From TrEMBL:
The chain crosses the membrane at residues 12-31, 43-62, 74-95. The keyword Transmembrane applies. Keywords: Membrane, Transmembrane, Transmembrane helix. It comes from Haemophilus ducreyi (strain 35000HP / ATCC 700724). This is Cyd operon protein YbgE. It comes from the Bacteria.
Amino acid sequence: MIHSIYNLTRKGWLKALSFILALLLFIVILLNPQVFASYFGGHVPYLAIFVFYGMAILWIHGIGLDIHRTFWQLLFLPIMGYLIVISTLIFLILLK
Protein backbone atom coordinates (compact mmCIF):
# COMPACT_ATOMS: atom_id res chain seq x y z
CA MET A 1 0.00 0.00 0.00
CA ILE A 2 2.84 2.39 0.82
CA HIS A 3 4.45 1.58 -2.54
CA SER A 4 1.30 2.52 -4.44
CA ILE A 5 0.90 5.80 -2.52
CA TYR A 6 4.59 6.61 -3.04
CA ASN A 7 4.36 5.75 -6.75
CA LEU A 8 1.59 8.33 -7.21
CA THR A 9 4.18 11.06 -6.66
CA ARG A 10 6.97 9.68 -8.87
CA LYS A 11 5.97 11.90 -11.78
CA GLY A 12 8.42 14.48 -13.08
CA TRP A 13 6.16 17.49 -12.64
CA LEU A 14 5.49 16.57 -9.00
CA LYS A 15 9.23 16.31 -8.37
CA ALA A 16 9.65 19.77 -9.88
CA LEU A 17 6.79 21.04 -7.72
CA SER A 18 8.49 19.56 -4.65
CA PHE A 19 11.73 21.33 -5.48
CA ILE A 20 9.97 24.66 -6.10
CA LEU A 21 7.92 24.46 -2.87
CA ALA A 22 10.98 23.55 -0.79
CA LEU A 23 12.93 26.40 -2.37
CA LEU A 24 10.05 28.83 -1.81
CA LEU A 25 9.76 27.88 1.87
CA PHE A 26 13.53 28.26 2.24
CA ILE A 27 13.37 31.76 0.73
CA VAL A 28 10.41 32.78 2.92
CA ILE A 29 12.25 31.60 6.05
CA LEU A 30 15.46 33.29 4.91
CA LEU A 31 13.74 36.63 4.25
CA ASN A 32 11.56 36.60 7.41
CA PRO A 33 13.46 34.72 10.11
CA GLN A 34 11.88 36.70 12.96
CA VAL A 35 8.34 35.87 11.81
CA PHE A 36 9.21 32.20 11.45
CA ALA A 37 10.96 32.08 14.82
CA SER A 38 8.19 33.86 16.69
CA TYR A 39 5.33 31.76 15.30
CA PHE A 40 7.00 28.38 14.93
CA GLY A 41 9.74 28.44 17.54
CA GLY A 42 8.15 30.42 20.35
CA HIS A 43 5.70 28.45 22.44
CA VAL A 44 5.98 25.09 20.70
CA PRO A 45 9.49 24.63 19.28
CA TYR A 46 8.57 21.22 17.88
CA LEU A 47 6.58 22.97 15.15
CA ALA A 48 9.83 24.33 13.69
CA ILE A 49 11.27 20.81 13.58
CA PHE A 50 8.06 19.60 11.94
CA VAL A 51 8.32 22.33 9.27
CA PHE A 52 11.97 21.48 8.58
CA TYR A 53 10.98 17.81 8.33
CA GLY A 54 8.41 18.69 5.66
CA MET A 55 10.95 20.79 3.82
CA ALA A 56 13.49 17.96 3.97
CA ILE A 57 10.93 15.55 2.51
CA LEU A 58 10.36 17.87 -0.44
CA TRP A 59 14.10 18.49 -0.96
CA ILE A 60 14.70 14.73 -1.10
CA HIS A 61 11.79 14.21 -3.47
CA GLY A 62 12.61 17.30 -5.53
CA ILE A 63 16.21 16.34 -6.30
CA GLY A 64 15.01 12.98 -7.59
CA LEU A 65 16.16 10.55 -4.93
CA ASP A 66 14.31 7.24 -5.39
CA ILE A 67 13.60 5.41 -2.16
CA HIS A 68 13.10 1.65 -2.38
CA ARG A 69 12.60 0.47 1.22
CA THR A 70 9.08 0.62 2.61
CA PHE A 71 10.12 2.13 5.95
CA TRP A 72 11.92 5.04 4.30
CA GLN A 73 9.09 5.55 1.81
CA LEU A 74 6.71 5.86 4.74
CA LEU A 75 9.06 8.23 6.60
CA PHE A 76 9.65 10.46 3.56
CA LEU A 77 6.23 10.32 1.92
CA PRO A 78 5.97 13.36 -0.39
CA ILE A 79 2.26 13.80 0.26
CA MET A 80 3.08 14.47 3.92
CA GLY A 81 5.69 17.02 2.84
CA TYR A 82 3.16 18.76 0.59
CA LEU A 83 0.66 19.05 3.44
CA ILE A 84 3.25 20.44 5.85
CA VAL A 85 4.95 22.88 3.47
CA ILE A 86 1.83 24.23 1.75
CA SER A 87 0.09 24.86 5.08
CA THR A 88 3.25 26.54 6.43
CA LEU A 89 3.58 28.74 3.35
CA ILE A 90 -0.06 29.78 3.55
CA PHE A 91 0.35 30.60 7.23
CA LEU A 92 3.58 32.59 6.76
CA ILE A 93 2.36 34.48 3.70
CA LEU A 94 -0.92 35.44 5.37
CA LEU A 95 0.99 36.84 8.36
CA LYS A 96 2.68 39.50 6.24
